[in-house]
Amino acid sequence: MELLTTYHLAGLFIGICTFLIIGLFHPVVVKAEYYWGTRCWWVFLLLGIAGVIASFSVENIILASLLGVFAFSSFWTIKEVFEQEERVKKGWFPKNPKRTYKF
Predict the structure, then answer these.
(1) How far apart are CA 3 and CA 13, in angstroms?
(2) Distance between CA 103 and CA 72 in Å, rounded?
(3) Can you tell me the distance from the alpha carbon of 28 to that of 96, in angstroms, rounded to the nearest whole number?
């Protein structure tokens, strides 16, 4: 981590990691809705809360920043899971044949 601050690469590193974290959450949303529907929203709430607590608990600014990105990506995923259900309703994504749907 010292190398990142010595060469002023911390911002670039945080940006790249933010991009990867957000990119990771897209397939997670699709799979979570496919297997569990919107019932899994509370898991992302707990992950977000844990990320916020961890971010406050860490002294390293780079790690704290990445934990904050993870936390708020988890919170955003709650909204996305419900929107994913709408996308499945519209036929943009496949339904899970082993699940029963409200619609």
Answers:
(1) 11
(2) 30
(3) 15
- pLDDT of the chain along its 103 residues, tens only? 677 767 789 899 999 999 999 999 999 999 999 999 999 999 999 999 999 999 999 999 999 999 999 999 999 999 999 999 999 999 999 999 998 887 7
Q: What string of DSSP letters covers 35-91?
A: HHGGGGHHHHHHHHHHHHHHHHH---HHHHHHHHHHHHHHHHHHHHHHHHHHHHHTT
Q: Say if CB 80 and CB 28 are below 8 A apart.
A: no
- For the chain, what are the domain ranges? 2-89
CA distance 44 to 58: 21
Q: What is the pTM of this model?
A: 0.89
Query: Beta-strand (E) ranges in 15-82?
Result: none
DSSP 99: S
